[in-house]
Amino acid sequence: STAAAAEKSDENDTSSSSAAKSAIDFLTASRGLKTTLRTGWIRQEASPRIESVADHSWRITLMSLLASSSEKVDSTRVMKMALVHDLAEARVGDITPHCGVSDEDKHAQELQAMQEMTKNL
After folding, report:
1. Whole-prediction pTM value?
2. Which of 16, 49, 91, 121 is buried most, with the most CB atoms less than 10 Å from its CB?
3. Which residues pair with 37 in a beta bridge?
4. What is d(CA 99, CA 104) in angstroms, rounded to the nearest whole number?
5. 121: how many CB neighbours lie within 10 A of its CB?
6. Terminal CA-CA length for the chain
């Protein structure tokens, strides 16, 4: 019936709208990588510009593209891993061994951050 088709269309619009909102929320949270500075660079007083985690992730992804030319390597997977490997740092910051956070606590914080950031994707 026409009413059933209209209802199904409304459900699809709501689903699409929800998916778009979830994607935007994820991208907004990820934006934090642009302003999260690398702790090691701060500790070393690197100048004139301290690298952000986004800077680092972009460079690592580009390096993975160059390094994964072998047929034995799944270059798409390598680049995806490089792109998201520090994503949790948008929430928890760049935790290094010098920060006084145990490996277990760091892992727990990063896992929770990733779960929160990706729960609606």
Report:
1. 0.77
2. 91
3. 52
4. 13
5. 9
6. 32
Residue with tokens 């979830």: 22
Q: Which of 32, 79, 38 is nearest to 56 (CA)?
A: 38
As given in the structure block, the two tokens for residue 18 are 């929800």
Tokens matching residue 93: 């910051």
Cα-Cα-Cα-Cα dihedral sign, residues 40, 116, 33, 62: positive
pLDDT in tens, the chain (121 residues): 665 655 665 666 677 889 999 999 999 999 999 999 999 888 888 878 899 999 999 999 999 988 877 778 888 899 999 999 999 999 999 999 999 999 999 999 999 999 999 998 8
Q: Which of 9, 45, 12, 15 is nearest to 120 (CA)?
A: 15
**φ, ψ for residue 52 (rounded to 5)?**
-90, 165
